[in-house]
# Entry
Amino acid sequence: MNNKIITIFLAIGALIVLVFGIDIIRNRSNQENEFDFSGITRPILYEQSPRTGPSSAKITIYEYADFNCPSCKAQSADLNRAIEKYKSSVRLVWKDFPFLSASSKQAAIAARCAKAQEKFWEYHDWLFNNQNILSDAAFESGAQLFGLNTLAFTQCLQDDTIENLVEQDFREGQALGIDSTPTIVIGDVGLVGVSSYQDLEAAIINELSK
# Structure
């Protein structure tokens, strides 16, 4: 996918919530009224948001992604490289945007359950590296691989609270006009598609200069 840079629209007023076709986004119609993002202009950092980097970082980068997204996997290396270079000034926040397949949402839930046992980023990488086998059985295998308490993990997979956290991120992304992955938000700029290291670094440097 060709990289393009879009500017996050900051005008006052409610932003339009994009609605995907029901063949892609399943079982969400009865949840549409649970989240109110009217007037939202920027990503929100929640207490439960998966993140890495110092809480005192000058810049917070938000990554909207789907664990079934090959482009999201491809983005990881350069994004991690940029985060490492500016690690004293930057933190990364993961935002679930599961829309590509039926297993996307379950993968996001599984990663959140790994987070509950402090293994989110390890499980995050494992999911990307095993996109071709994602299934309920695979999620359990991943939990065993990282030494998670499998009973707690299995119970977590059925917890509606965790599903709501995933859905919250997704609805937020829709309210911001996000409709593809990866989308990386750095300040007022959104990088859509696989961004080069140079584009990532330029956006970081620009934000640091403010």
Remarks:
- The helical segments are 70-85, 102-115, 120-129, 136-145, 150-157, 160-175, 197-208.
- The radius of gyration is 17 Å.
- Residues 70-85 form the longest helix (16 residues).
- The chain is about 40% helix and 15% strand.
